[in-house]
Design brief:
With about 400 residues, this protein is an alpha+beta fold. The chain has helices at about 5-15, 20-25, 25-50, 75-85, 120, 135-140, 150-155, 195-200, 220-235, 255-295, 300-305, 310-350, 365-390, 395-400; strands at about 60-65, 85-100, 105-115, 125-130, 145-150, 165-170, 175-180, 190-195, 210-215, 250-255. Strands 1, 2, 3, 4, 5, 6, 7, 8, 9 and 10 form a 10-stranded mixed beta sheet that branches. A hairpin with a 2-residue loop joins strand 6 and strand 7 (about 175-180). The radius of gyration is 33 Å and the shape is elongated.
Amino acid sequence: MSFRDLMREVFSALDANRGRSLLTILGIVIGIAAVIAMTSLIGGVSQALVGELGLDQSRMLYITGSTPTRDLDADDLEQIELNVPGYDFVTGVQYTSSNISAGAKTEESASLVLVEAQYFDAASVKFIAGSAFSERDGSTGGMVIVLGQPVAKKLFGGDGSDAVGRPVKIGNDSYIVVGVAEAANSYQTESYLPYKTGMSRLADGYGGYTQVIGYAKEGVDANDLADRTRTFLYSYLNVDPNDDESGYVDVTAMQSMIDQLNATMATFSLMMSAVAGISLVVGGIGIMNMMLTNVTERIREIGLRKALGARSSDITKQFLLESVTLCLVGGLIGILLGYGASWALTSVASSLTDGMTVTPAISPTTIAAATGICIAIGVGFGYYPARRAARLNPVESLRFQ
């Protein structure tokens, strides 16, 4: 029997029991839909967290170090670069606050981050208008500022993009807005000043850094670089890691945080897949039950086919193809439902977060895996009924009432 003839018989048999077939594949539909929807949601949330929180900067390291008498300063950063190979650059950050005003509007106690120009690349700061201040502005103490979008919106209205090129006042000094930085959420209100400018105008010239950011060279293992930096700072600052009074050192690689996030999301994905897998097993049992019922109902048909020359292998193929076809149809419906459900779930997730857009992460690998699972279930749960049908004695089958 040719493959075309087999498929014609398969669809004819399934069409004759259309209602039963649809009810039988419900377990497969629900299982596949759940796998697609949950893995897409978890992947989408993971990608959104990576993008919105800046965790995509896998080469970035956060470095904190202090002793009872001082924090890290510019000379210390130079020593880190000299003694710990692997950095593209190391830059310091200082935090302060002050009122920012434009005309009659004022943002009171606005958070100000004092940074070098390199910071914007390292921290992957995004701009809705304008750009970061230049290295020249940083080295000469330029009177420029990058406003956070919430502050720019409050002072200049609209989406804040009109702020670029306009003056703002901090204390008695006037600054020109060169860029408006996108905020990940409404709580992120930081604005950025050149470090030298901020230290001389707002911090009385104190030269310490609250935080240091290192940017690893491409190809360098960030976790290993973090370990080497931590070891160096313990020795350089004479800090005993077991004695809090001697000082404090902490070096965190963003790659480590990304790995932890991925591991957590993978665990959730595995749990959801396991729950969905139960539905698939139940669906497979339903497929086997239906195929055994079909064999019983079609004993005379099987006997007639064998009497007309059909081989046992032909009977096996026919019933096995019926099982696989049922599973593939259920899988296709499940993939479509799962695709729709993933968009619905991510829309709900986006509405429940502040400023974070979650889109489903549907990969071809997931679709291929779902298809493979359907075929495996069809073969695994359909083989026994198919072999049982193939072993029927044609003479006894024709006598069956």
